[in-house]
Design goal:
The chain has ten helices and five strands. With 216 residues, it is α/β, with parallel strands linked by helices. The chain folds into two domains: 132 residues, 3-Layer(aba) Sandwich (Rossmann fold), CATH 3.40.50.2300; 67 residues, Arc Repressor Mutant, subunit A, CATH 1.10.10.
Length: 216
């Protein structure tokens, strides 16, 4: 059987000890390769394209440009790059802003190494991994927000439920299991969701769901 290419990961983290620990974890694990580790968002923006990763692990509290501002810049330059926040912050504003900016997931730095590696695989499979505390806050935020009447974009109740599952951290496979349907059925509905929301990716759909308060 042909070798499966290693998952390519970049790190944007200003604390050297954490940055080096992450690099050693990634390079020391079969199936993963660190393409670059950067101490600032400015350094990442300038250099990340030299060996473009599949996923970038991004801190929020960086010295000058924040991780949230930086992922907006990276998303414009590299639309297919997946951005996974790895931070100490778990407040509603930063979670909301990160998801709206284009983050595909949100993990806290206390995440165990095995779960972090699992999350990197999950995000490339279409999931939106979140630490449990973050997922609870996201769900609570949705419950507190009452969407305006015209914000539904004609999504059906089933499509809204699928979008909510993705926001809660499910990928296509686990969402299919939750709804007792096939993965192809989820893909079919996601194409409809993309068309109705006028987006092109899962992270854009999740961000629009948050920004326009589609999920009740």
């Amino acid at each position: 059987m042909p070798d499966i290419p290693a998952l390519r990961i970049a790190i944007v983290e200003d604390q050297l000890r954490i940055r080096e620990g992450l690099r050693m974890l990634i390079d020391g694990t079969d199936g993963f390769r660190c393409t670059g580790s950067f101490g600032s968002m400015e350094e990442a923006i300038e250099n990340i394209g030299r060996d473009l990763p599949d996923v970038a692990l991004v801190d929020i509290g960086l010295p000058e440009m924040s991780g949230i501002d930086g992922i907006r810049v990276l998303k414009r330059s590299y639309p297919d790059l997946l951005l996974l926040m790895l931070t100490v912050y778990d407040d509603d504003k930063r979670i909301f802003d990160a998801m709206c900016a284009g983050a595909s997931g949100y993990l806290l730095k206390k995440t165990p190494p095995a779960r972090l590696l699992e999350s990197l695989k999950e995000v490339t499979a279409g999931g939106a991994p979140m630490s449990p505390e973050v997922a609870r806050r996201v769900v609570a935020l949705f419950r507190e927000i009452r969407p305006p009447e015209d914000a539904g974009y004609s999504l059906t109740p089933h499509e809204i439920r699928i979008l909510k599952l993705l926001v809660e951290g499910h990928n296509y496979k686990t969402a299919a299991a939750e709804l007792d349907v096939s993965v192809n059925t989820i893909r079919f509905h996601m194409r409809s969701i993309y068309d109705k929301l006028q987006v092109h990716s899962k992270s854009e759909a999740v961000a629009k769901g948050l920004r326009h308060r589609i999920i009740r």
